[in-house]
Design goal:
By secondary structure, the protein is of the alpha/beta class. The protein is built from 12 helices and 12 strands. Helix 4 packs across helix 12 and helix 10 packs across helix 11.
Length: 359
């Protein structure tokens, strides 16, 4: 007995010479997009010749009347990532798309599982809020499902990207701390490895600025953690910031300032300094990156780098939507780069000679 092969959207796309996303929208009679009459005719004719039959809504991975976009993020406990996710959802909602959120806890296996799921369910598109580890697979899936990656300028995957130059963000912080007279600082971080290249780039920016000034130093304190630890602890990075800062303070060094790799870790730094009876900024200056909402609270007042989280998240979806609508081909890679600005608040102040007394 010979089993007839099921005709897929990919088959229709090939025969019609029209992108997969466009074929999907035409055959599903999407009301919010339009195509040239000849394109619609080509797609419908190809579907008729092949005997294509549309699967049920559930089989296509769609909610009633909605397309579904997958958002892939390391976690949602860190307000930086939850902010990105929500801004993507805001833009998706405006175009009547639903979203599904998947957390990977920085595990390549989970990224690949989500990519497979997106293909199986026929997701309209995907947004990664961090440069994925499975880049080769992402690039392969991108030929079938539009994907946008939010990452560092240095990563440059062969897909549409919304980029930040995290090296320049480190340079900004380094110049700020040196400008205040802090010749010896500590850099507090977690997960400083190739998987988290954004963090390495921030550190390198700070170190390069300090290397230009003889007699200045940057001490690095970092700790890795497993995906399981990240899953099981909502405040993991804040706690790591706290513990590493206590370790630094025990050394009685000449450090007068702390740079945390993100605002979440900076909150742990602030707590550790207070726990040891010191004050910010009278005894130590503290900086972060990301400008989380809580960093703006007057009692916190964290000096940090604004990285336009909401604008980047919305822009990521806008680029994705353009691809979904057939406006850009897979080969037409869009790279959108955002700039930074320093937000100086109460957590940093000029170095005072009396600060040396604490060491």
């Amino acid at each position: 007995m010979i089993t007839k092969k099921k005709v897929t959207l990919e088959d229709v796309s090939r025969l019609a010479g029209v992108s997969l996303s466009s074929v999907s929208m035409i055959l599903n009679a999407r009301a919010d997009v339009s195509f040239a009459p000849e394109t619609v005719q080509k797609v419908r004719q190809a579907a008729k010749e092949l005997g294509y039959r549309a699967p049920s809504r559930l089989a296509k991975g769609r909610l009633p009347g909605r397309n579904v976009v997958f958002i892939v993020t390391p976690n949602i406990a860190n307000a930086y990532y939850s902010g990105l996710v929500q801004s993507i959802q805001q833009a998706a909602e405006e175009h009547n798309f639903s979203t599904l959120i998947f957390t990977t806890y920085r595990e390549a296996r989970k990224e690949e599982e989500v990519l497979d799921m997106a293909l199986a369910l026929g997701a309209a598109g995907m947004v990664f809020t961090l440069t994925p580890q499975s880049l080769r697979k992402v690039e392969k899936v991108n030929a079938k499902i539009p994907i946008v990656v939010m990452g560092d300028k240095n990563s440059s995957p062969k897909v549409d990207t919304v980029e930040l130059d995290n090296y320049s963000a480190g340079v900004i912080i380094g110049r700020h701390m040196l400008g205040l007279g802090h010749r010896h600082i500590a850099f507090i971080s977690a997960m400083m490895n190739a998987t988290n290249a954004i963090r390495l780039r921030r550190l390198q920016g700070v170190k390069d600025i300090y290397a230009e000034r003889p007699g200045c130093s940057v001490q690095v304190f970092t700790r890795d953690y497993t995906p399981q630890e990240e899953l099981n602890s909502i405040d993991l990075e804040q706690r790591i910031g706290y513990e590493l800062t206590l370790e630094c303070l025990k050394r009685k060094s000449r450090i007068s300032g702390f740079v945390a790799v993100n605002d979440f870790i900076a909150y742990g730094v602030l707590d550790a300094i207070a726990a040891k009876g010191f004050r910010v900024p009278e005894d130590y200056s503290v900086c972060g990156f990301n400008n989380l909402f809580s960093s703006r609270i007057s009692r916190v007042g964290l000096t940090t780098v604004e990285q336009q989280t909401e604008a980047r998240g919305r822009n990521a979806f806008d680029i994705l939507y353009e691809r979904i609508c057939g406006g850009n081909a897979v080969s037409d890679i869009t790279r959108m780069e955002y700039t930074h600005r320093l937000l100086e608040r109460r957590s940093t102040a000029p170095f005072r000679q009396t600060q040396q007394e604490k060491s």
